[in-house]
Predict the 3D structure of the following.
Amino acid sequence: MIITTTTQIEGKKIVEYKGIVFGEVVNGVNFVKDFTAGLTNIFGGRSGSYEGELIEARENAIREMEARAESIGANAVVGVDIDYEVLGQGNMLMVTASGTAVVTE
């Protein structure tokens, strides 16, 4: 399945719009990751633990969106947007992927 942030797919013709599809993931961030991220904040540098959480959550949200598109008969998703939110007391990360499910020739 083609998944793209653009509204068109080069070399493909969109023949049917199936609707908007979403993939949502809410991940908890545990104490150990909070602690190591706090150390990174004090000493500087990148927080590998949080980056890993973001990457995993984003990939899962995209996979969920793709599965929902397939379930309604689409073979591509265009206009994809990824949003990030912090929930609760800052210990929950929500990632949402959304786009338009389409059928292409």
User: Anything to note?
Assistant: The radius of gyration is 17 Å.
